[in-house]
Every structure is written in structure tokens, then in C-alpha cells.
């Protein structure tokens, strides 16, 4: 075969990924990224993320479902669950014919405070923590941490607490052992213990040493009481977290990337919800469209705010009822007619650690939304694996819309793996495929994404929710 013939044949037959930066309109990419960075800076917890996104929805004509006695075609509605999960929908021509959904999760790896976290040791007040989700514990040492959360005080008053996010606030730090004295050896997972993740919180005693027990702890409680009216017992009815106090920043001289805490998975949450809100408000979609944003994914989706719960199913049942559709009995049939993109981040290829990846089947920064036909580990355990038919339809949609997509797996075989909420929807009959933003440094306090992938994921979710022949 001649060189020119082989080249032409290669162009016809060989799959080639393309770098988005060579074809995207940079102005739109950077403008969208700027707004996303405002969100990710504010959304340090799942509660703060829900607060931000509810404000965003209300500004764009969405109404809380509980405020309505009836819903019409084209209605924009939402619900929240315990301030930590959010579901929003735009009613289509016939709800009973199925729903096009994008789901993601709002929780992220972090350090939760223990029920009674405050202790004094050697005239230092420290906050004891219990890590949440999969973390490398050493990454949380000697970085600035913010104390954020919600407390229900003994009189029933609900108070939001935030210390460390504003530029003038103090922060909290888990100190590490200096290298001069650190002779520890062995597996880092054993060297760094969860019980040692204790954050410095105060050092000034309230009185002379010996006059009362734990005088530095008392100083901390006094300051907390002055600011928020809290007493120590209130810690027990609180959701308090220590989260990185970093601001989102541009990464690279070309400003092509974003470094921030909790891209996983607030980046898919933001792109999905903005895609839903940007559907043409005056038009009634042919199919009902929905975005579901859950809590608890990082620890198995347990609890009433996780994907395993029924609150989102109840939401659909209420929509059927308020739509005057006499098909309450057919929720299972409706779900079997529904389609979903499970929006969760993918592992991006890191050239420093090539041996843990299959480069042909790993997402790269700047190459578009990452599609994972299956996730799981150890022989595809705990995966929902999308059908060839549905993958083909999504692929055709993205190609038709000019959306850059790429194949993704979470590491080489037997090197790692992981799951998403997709399997819980597949169990209920929903046709589902994983698709999200590639991330470097996943589960670290400062993850990295490409602005191009961020914008392309928004475009992909919007195309899917528009229901164009999927």
C-alpha cells in the first residue's frame, strides 16, 4: 500500500483523540471557568453547594415543588433533602414516557469533627477528626484548614458556622513531624494514622495554669460562644468539617487549568445544573429532564441524602401526581424508559506515574468529556457497564453536536478502580453511562482540571438534556 493510501485509510479507520484547545472558542471557555471558580470557592461543603445552586435555580425561574398544587408542561421545579442533596427538573411533554437525567454528587473527601472533638493536651487546644472518604492522610498535614458547618443548638436554633474562609479569618492546621526527628519507615498508609489528624485550634490559657482544668480549651469555647452562642454540648448536634482553606487558582502560565478543593464531584454537579438551567426557558422539552445531585457518594451512597435512598423516587412520584397523570403505579416502568449520564470525574493521565495507567484507555486533560463504559475493580466488580447500544447513541449524539469526548478507565487492570452512583440507578432499570470531567490529583486537598474539559462537559450534558435523538 502506498503512503498516501495508507494515510487516507488511517484517517478513515483509526480513532484519534483531539486536543480541544485547537478548536474551542477560548473566550467562552474562560468565561464559563470564571463563573465556575466562584462556585467552587463558595461550595466548600455539600450544604454550601446546595445553598449556592438553589439561589442559581431560583434566579432562573425554578420553584420549590412543595410550593405548587399542580405542575404544567415546561414547569421548572426543585427539591432539597436535609440541605445536602438537590434534585431539579424541567417538565416535558409526557412525563410518563421517561426522563433524561444527569446525576452527580456534592460531597467530597474531608475531615469531619468527632462528636466531642475539643481536647487540651500540653496546653494546646486541638480538634479531633474522623476522615471522610478516601484520602491520603499525609496530604492534610500542614495546610490551612477552615472550620465550616451547621449546628443545632440546645434551644433548637440552627446556626451556620464558618471560620477560615474569609481572608481575615484564622485557620486551623494539623502539624506534621519535622524531618530532623522523623525516623518512621514503612507503608505511608500505616505511618500516617487517622487518629493523629488533630488540628491546632488555640494556645492562650484563660487563667493561670492549675487554677482550672483545661484553660486553653476554655479560651476556644469562650471565643466560639461569643461568635456563635455555642456551648460544648452543641458539638453533638452539629455537622462540622475541616476543609482546605485554599482559593481556586489558575494553573499554568497559559491559565488553562484550575486548581481547587472538591472538583470531585462538584465540577460535574455545576456543569449539569447549569446545563439544565440553560435549556430554552420558553420551550417545552419533548422529554422531562432532570439533574440529581447527591450526598454520601464517597462513602457508598448510604443514608437519606445518598443515591440509595428513595427521596428522588418520591420526587418523581409527586411530579406524576401533580401532573394529574394516573400512573402512580408505573414508577418502575417510567424508570425503565429513562436514560442517564452519571456525572462523576475520571482519572486523568499523569505522566509522572505512567505505570498505573493504560494510556490508550485513560482520559487526558484537554481532550473533552471522559466516557467510562464501565468502572469497578477486580474483574469489573461493582460496575453497571453500559450497553453497546446506549454508548453508541451517546457517542453519535456527541459527534453530531461536535462535542469532544474520550474513553476513560480508572487505572490499569488490577492497579485500582472505583465505582459511581450509576449502579444504583441501573438496579432500578435506568439506562445509564458514566461521563464526566478528567481530574489530576483526585481526592487530594487541591485537585486539577482543564478549563476546556469543564466547558465541554457542560456542552455535553446540555446536548443530552435537550433530548436530541439520544
TrEMBL record:
Keywords: Aminopeptidase, Hydrolase, Metal-binding, Metalloprotease, Protease, Zinc. It is an enzyme of class 3 (hydrolase). One of its GO terms (molecular function) is zinc ion binding. GO terms for biological process: proteolysis. Its EC number is 3.4.11.-. Its cofactor is Zn(2+). One of its GO terms (cellular component) is cytoplasm. Belongs to the peptidase M18 family. NCBIfam families: PRK02256.1 (NF002600). This is M18 family aminopeptidase. It comes from Mesotoga infera. The gene is apeA.
Amino acid at each position: 500500500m502506498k503512503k498516501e493510501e495508507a494515510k487516507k485509510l488511517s484517517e478513515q479507520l483509526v480513532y484519534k483523540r483531539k486536543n480541544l484547545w485547537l478548536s474551542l472558542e477560548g473566550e467562552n471557555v474562560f468565561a464559563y471557568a470564571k463563573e465556575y471558580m466562584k462556585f467552587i470557592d463558595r461550595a466548600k461543603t455539600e450544604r454550601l453547594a446546595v445553598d449556592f445552586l438553589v439561589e442559581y435555580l431560583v434566579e432562573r425561574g425554578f420553584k420549590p415543588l412543595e410550593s405548587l398544587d399542580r405542575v404544567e408542561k415546561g414547569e421548572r421545579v426543585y427539591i432539597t433533602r436535609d440541605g445536602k442533596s438537590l434534585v431539579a427538573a424541567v417538565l416535558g411533554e409526557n412525563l410518563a414516557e421517561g426522563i433524561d437525567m444527569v446525576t452527580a454528587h456534592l460531597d467530597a473527601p474531608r475531615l469531619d469533627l468527632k462528636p466531642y472533638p475539643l481536647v487540651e493536651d500540653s496546653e494546646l487546644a486541638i480538634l479531633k477528626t474522623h476522615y471522610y472518604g478516601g484520602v491520603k492522610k499525609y496530604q492534610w498535614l500542614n495546610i490551612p484548614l477552615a472550620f465550616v458547618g451547621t449546628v443545632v443548638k440546645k434551644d433548637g436554633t440552627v446556626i451556620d458556622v464558618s471560620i477560615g474562609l474569609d481572608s481575615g479569618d484564622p485557620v486551623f492546621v494539623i502539624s506534621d513531624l519535622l524531618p530532623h526527628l522523623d525516623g518512621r519507615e514503612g507503608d505511608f498508609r500505616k505511618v500516617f494514622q487517622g487518629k493523629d489528624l488533630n488540628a491546632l485550634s488555640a494556645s492562650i490559657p484563660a487563667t493561670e495554669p492549675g487554677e482550672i482544668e483545661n484553660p486553653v480549651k476554655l479560651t476556644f469555647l469562650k471565643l466560639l460562644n461569643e461568635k456563635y452562642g455555642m456551648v460544648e454540648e452543641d458539638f453533638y448536634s452539629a455537622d462540622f468539617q475541616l476543609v482546605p482553606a485554599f482559593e481556586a487558582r489558575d494553573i499554568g502560565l497559559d491559565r488553562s487549568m484550575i486548581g481547587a478543593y472538591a472538583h470531585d464531584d462538584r465540577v460535574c454537579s455545576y456543569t449539569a445544573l447549569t446545563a439544565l438551567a440553560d435549556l430554552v426557558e420558553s420551550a417545552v422539552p419533548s422529554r422531562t429532564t432532570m439533574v440529581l445531585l447527591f450526598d454520601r457518594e464517597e462513602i457508598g451512597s448510604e443514608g437519606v441524602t445518598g443515591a440509595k435512598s428513595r427521596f428522588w423516587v418520591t420526587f418523581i412520584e409527586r411530579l406524576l401526581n401533580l401532573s394529574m397523570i394516573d400512573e402512580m403505579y408505573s414508577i418502575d416502568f417510567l424508570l425503565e424508559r429513562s436514560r442517564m449520564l452519571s456525572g462523576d470525574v475520571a482519572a486523568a493521565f499523569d505522566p509522572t506515574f505512567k505505570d498505573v495507567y493504560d494510556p490508550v484507555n485513560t482520559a487526558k486533560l484537554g481532550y473533552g468529556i471522559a466516557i467510562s463504559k464501565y468502572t469497578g475493580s477486580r474483574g469489573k466488580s461493582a460496575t453497571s457497564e453500559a450497553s453497546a447500544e446506549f454508548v453508541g447513541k451517546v457517542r453519535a449524539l456527541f459527534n453530531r453536536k461536535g462535542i469532544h469526548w474520550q474513553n476513560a478507565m480508572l487505572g490499569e487492570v488490577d492497579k485500582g478502580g472505583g465505582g459511581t452512583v450509576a449502579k444504583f440507578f441501573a438496579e432500578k432499570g435506568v439506562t445509564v453511562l458514566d461521563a464526566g470531567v478528567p481530574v489530576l490529583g483526585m481526592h487530594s486537598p487541591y485537585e486539577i482540571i482543564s478549563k476546556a474539559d469543564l466547558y465541554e462537559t457542560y456542552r455535553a450534558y446540555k446536548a443530552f438534556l435537550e433530548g436530541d435523538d439520544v
